[in-house]
Amino acid sequence: MKINWKNIFFIGTLVSLIMVTACTDDLKITPEDTQNIASEEFYKDPNSYKQVLAKLYAGLAISGQEGPAGRPDISGIDEGFSQYLRQYWLAQQVTTDEAVIGWADGSLPDYHEHDWNENNEFVRALYNRILYQITVSNEFLRQTTDAKLDGRGVTGALRTDIAVFRAEARFLRALSYWHALDLFGNYPFVTDNDAPGYFFPEQKDRTFLFNFIETELKDIEGTLLAPRSNEYARADKAAAWMVLAKLYLNAEVYTGTQKNTEAVTYSKRVIDAGYTIEPAYKNLFLADNHTARGVIFPIAFDGLRTQTYGGTTFLIHAAVGGNMSPAEFGINGGWGGTRTTSALVNKFDLNLDLATANNDIGSTTLWGLVGNLNGWGGSADIALRQTTTANIFAVLVKINDDGELKFRYNHDWGNNYGDNGANGTIDAGGDNIKIKKGTYRITLNLVNNTYTVELIKDLRADFHTDGQKLEIESISTFTDGYAVRKFKNVTKTGVAGSDASGNFTDTDFPMFRVEDAYLMYAEATVRGGAGGNVGLAVGYINQLKQRALGSTAGNITATDLTLNFILDERARELYWECHRRTDLIRFGRFTTGSYHWPWKGGVMGGVATSAHRNLFPIPSSDLNANPKLKQNPGYN
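RE: above sequence
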């Protein structure tokens, strides 16, 4: 993407922070840098405040101080693996039915197998990356208090801007504390009220963290800019409402108390903030997706200015392998790692109400389809419907097996039409028309004697199947499992991203988008949230369905709007966007034997896993360093 905001991610050499909030060098969350900006000299430049705010946002996108590698923010793991989104994605996706990764780096296979422990380096990197983000946010807040600003003589427009900057820093800190709450449950708690230095942070439980995040987000709501009025990739009120909606939707998991009414309220605030859904689903995941509608809070990437081996560089490169063309994805080569399981693929099997959809086309006519689908006349022909245009007829039909068909009038073999040239033109008594298994909209146009056969599919199901097997026999074999084509480093017109080498990507990651608010509103309504309207929820879902299928064929009714349907629809709409683990836990499907998927628990067919794995463990390095910490139940 091309915006000025990204240009300040690297102004000269990115500034870095020297702040320690833990009690030992073992944690090593401080940047590998010697420049201490907790100094009055640094803040003599009025631009420094926005530069440091940029560093806070960049903490979600980059991994260190020198681009892709060299001076990492955290140590103890390869810098490329240490990037925030890459670690968050692995924890939220590879532990679920939506993703596998074929690499055997260190303890990475533990995520498929559900047997991670407190010594897993990926769990530790995620824990430390979250704590690092909280730490840098705290220091910015310490350096921008009224007392500090008064002492520096900061007034006027800059003072007003800094108030907004502080609200955004508090949002970013709340976002990371929400991740900590969701992933680890009980987490060391530090704010800007704690003086920097070596000390033992107190560990707080989920209820405390829930209340802190809720209070913070409500407190900054009045200072954050209005929805869609801030610079791209900066937080506004709608971003805070999204986190609150997610906090409330998962409140029963976090605190034991449902907050579905509040989830209805805040998801509706987002929906009513003027966002519309992007007409083409695929545009949400391309190199120019900064122009896509409905994105509320992205993590911004730029192939020249935010180079990292995490983020969407990882998501795109790792998903390309086998006989896939890297050029199609705007990259110089695939890493052959990530795929999906049949559990996700099968959720896209269409189960359409064809009768209703056909009634929506129009009334039946004497024109029909004859072929394998009706035993070549052994049963009634499939009646074509009169469209709104005279002499143009159509029908939606499910073909259960590969076969052939023809058009005929009034069941009369003396008035049948095929296609001699397989060119879309009908010929009297012509050759049978070949057709493969699937669901189709078939149109007969007697104005110009042509026909069309359009496959109806969920356009969100963007899988590479050529040379790939649906079922995974070996996780390490890239061609086992369908590859996911969702993210690409090309624009809508097919132009590759800005990095001519093809190494690093321009594609932003849509952390929050309005479609998620639609789905949260529907779920909270079904769960009994006061103020929710089932009819409105159905309408929101049908907007997603109509975009996905290009017609009303997949529309649902109120009776279809069940929790099981919503969980599956969230997978169809939001797969690979870091929601799945949290969703499965909320629905009671992540651990135990309530839901098996391929390779859950390290077994091809999937097995039950222990419920204690709904939380990740506190890393042993931090437990050994801080006597105030206790391990989560079920871990050593």
